[in-house]
Structure formats: C-alpha cells, structure tokens
Amino acid sequence: ARFAKVSVSLDLTVADESPKGLTEEMIRICGEETNLSLRELNKFQQQDFSQPSESVQCFTHCLYEQMGLMHDGVFVERDILGLLSEASNPDRWLERQCHMIEGANKCETAFKIHQCRQNLKPTGKDVE
Q: What is the DSSP string of 47-112?
C-alpha cells in the first residue's frame, strides 16, 4: 500500500511510441517486485541518478518491460516505419544511440538507457 498514490513522470514520449503508457498500477507492481523504498522512488522522481541501487535499476527495467519498451533486457524498437522516418530525422539519432547502451545486466541496461534519454531532454533547471 506504500505505492498507493505516487505519481512518477518518466518524461518519456511513450504515448505515441508504445502501446502502453505509464500507470500507477505499473509503478505499484514494479515497486513491490523490486522492493523499492519510498526514498529511492522519490530520488527517481527527482531524476537523481547518483549512486543508483540495484532496486532502482530493476525498477526502471520493470517499468520499461511493463510499458513494452524492453523485452528480456533489450530495448524494443517501435516499428519499421518509425525507424525509416527516424533515419532522416537527426533529432532522433542521439536517442537511438541511448537504446544501444548495455550494462552489466538487464536492470543496469534499462537504467542507463533511461538516464541517457533523460539527459537528452531539455530542462528548465539550467536557466538562472
């Protein structure tokens, strides 16, 4: 019940790229499966990627699998037509590079891909 009303924004462009968007149920399931603490979840929400625990890495992998973005530790390409249109779109090249990152295991791979994708997104934090 500790994951009852937690909202997590992964800032992924999932709606049009994947059959499933992130839901509270996915967060609950993955939180329970990975024994993720509320402190770790909060850190994840804040996009604090420093010293990620194995629980955080496996939580990321679980969410990506639940959303259909990964299967057996491999990032799933959306569709062949999407790939063809992306081939001519330089804005997608960096994101595609993220999808090729590999870690020591499937959890680390998912976390590193997520971290890479988040680093590509513009943030309002740089403006002072």
A: T--SS--HHHHHHHHHHHHHTTSEETTEEPP--HHHHHHHHT-HHHHHHHHHHT---SSHHHHHHH
